[in-house]
Amino acid sequence: MNCFIRYRPPFFFLWAVLYLHIVNVAAVKIRRLSVPRWVENGTERPITLDCEYLYTHNDLHLVVKWFYNNEVKPVYQWIPALSTRYVSGFLQGRLDDTFVAEPLDTYSRYRALRIIKPTIDMTGTYTCVVTSLANQDSREQGMVVYAPAKTIVVNHSLTSSNELDVSCTAKGLFPRPQIELFVSKPGKTVPLSVGGASVSTFSREGVFDIELKKTFSIRNLSKTEATIFECFIEIPGTDYVTVKRNVYFPEPVKMEQGDRSGISHGKRVIQFSDYIFIVIILMVLNL
């Protein structure tokens, strides 16, 4: 005869599991992490990285930490119970220490980072970690501090082999930019993307220079109307997009425009001179 014995866990064990579950549910928890996804380098307006969390009376010895990328040491730490704040690394001297996230909440006053004039070296992933004796919670978000182009130049030159060399150069961008060339031909309302262009990117002093080159056959361009070249430059992960244009006029168009302008101007001068001569003659006859 088989005998089955049902195991009954001790009452205190069930109580302990239930207690830990209740404490964990009611313990500190991050509600929202607010980190700008992108911001322009050197902007005058300070930016705020905020970490909103919920806590209860169970959260003794609350500690707020901010980490940068994969660094083990926090770049910012605040212990409300001790009223102490610790700043290290690139954030030293870069924070507004008078900023208060929640003036009326003792355990949330200095949870946020208020960065003054962010720079490109601050690009990275920021992680907020909130711990207590009852629980720990963390969230992370990436931020890009981008640098727009300092100069953009679009040029074209006619070669001896009856080809047109088009180049677009942008300098001083961060992070690594992307570049694309479009051409607007007569009769086309939408610019066409140009394939097969040569693109080179150079890194210098923490920023990037980028250059695009493309050669066109004159036979494939309009011989009577202008062709517009548009250079599009963007920085991935941001809203930065800029366009620089350059217009190519075929030689016959230049000559015709120049001839018409010269002839029109000459006729106006001759007509005005004839008018003055007639007025002088009439004045002499009246005398």
Order of helices and strands: HEEEEEEEEEEEEEEEEEH
Outline type: elongated
The total beta strand count reads 17
User: What Rg is obtained from the alpha carbons, in whole angstroms?
Assistant: 35 Å
Q: What structural class is derived from the secondary structure elements?
A: alpha+beta
Proportion of β residues? Answer: 35-45%
- Main sheet attributes: strand count, strand direction, barrel closure: 6 strands, mixed
> Unreliable stretches, pLDDT < 50, 5 or more residues?
11-25, 253-279
**Given the structure, what is the number of helices?**
2
Please state the average pLDDT score. 84
Q: Helicity level, as a percent range?
A: 10-25%
Amino-to-carboxy terminus distance: 154 Å
**Strands ordered across the widest β-sheet:** 2-9-8-4-5-6
What does this entry show, briefly?
The chain has 287 residues and is an alpha+beta fold. It contains two helices and 17 strands.
Report on the architecture of this protein:
With 287 residues, this protein is α+β, with helices and mostly antiparallel strands. The chain has 2 helices and 17 strands. It has a 6-stranded mixed beta sheet, with no helix packed on it. The protein starts with 10 loop residues before the first helix and ends with a helix. Mean pLDDT is 84; it is low at 11-25 and 253-279.
